[in-house]
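STRUCTURE REQUEST FORM
Protein name: Osmoprotectant transport system substrate-binding protein
Source organism: Terribacillus saccharophilus
Requested output: structure tokens
Priority: standard
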Amino acid sequence: MKKRLSLIALLTVIIVVLSSCSPGGKNITVGAKTFTEQLILAKMTSFILEDNGFNVEEIQNLGSSAMRQAIETQQIDITWEYVGTALVSYLGEDPIVDKNKAMERIQELDKKNGVAWTNLTDANNTYVLAMKQERAEELGLDTISDLAEYVNANPDELVFGMETEFANRQDGMPGLEEHYGFELPDSNIREMEIGLYYSALNNGEIDVTEGFSTDPQIKSLDLKILEDDQEFFPSYNLAASINQKTLDKYPELTELLMPLQKALTDDSLRELNYQVDIEKKSVERVAKDFLEANNLLND
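Status: completed
Returned output:
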């Protein structure tokens, strides 16, 4: 009798597991690109969706073009994407500074591609200029306008570090100089591989560096971000990019992601990236801790 009951119990478990993974279940695939921020975002999204009855598969480490193609073809259902990347790289548009206008333009253009955009966040992983706190205070620099004025008065004093792409693209250094009305001598620009400019800044080899607003080194090195007071750098705010068929099937996705949407800021993402990249915590642990700390999971 015990053997028979055990067999019945085993069969019941198998049926439950199979039914949860069956085509009739709520199945969804979450995508992530190759870097830490994307992996954290995907993991947090997976935890939230699993907490609300979805069977989640994650596909990670995709390049931007591969991710976009996967969203369009529904190989991936949902990812967190940057509106600036979508506008410029996917849709061939000019960058837009205002995040809401950028979002509206993407939503308008991407209808024909079967891609929906929801849950626009305040997290804006755009370009920034950063300096050591003490150096910025010494020179009285709080904004890029302050920096431009100082460079015009002292053109040979400050050394800038940046990757080659930023040094040459119109939404990088050339456009920045034009927008703010200053010109840096070529001899004061140090082009280097991405990421190396932070160590160069820390070692005193350069005075100002290009970066991205959610870079963990800004926290680890206690750097000052110069305010883009004349709003030059375009919006790279995060939003949910969802295959339209998926959203039609699961319209509740927008509401489920809303608490996470509200919790995502430059500061919170910088802290999350810091915990993984600098403190060497696992993506899973960092994602789960953040969700629990912000009460984003069901009790």
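Reviewer notes: Residues 216 and 271 are 7 Å apart (CA to CA). Residues 2-20 form the longest helix (19 residues).
Form closed.
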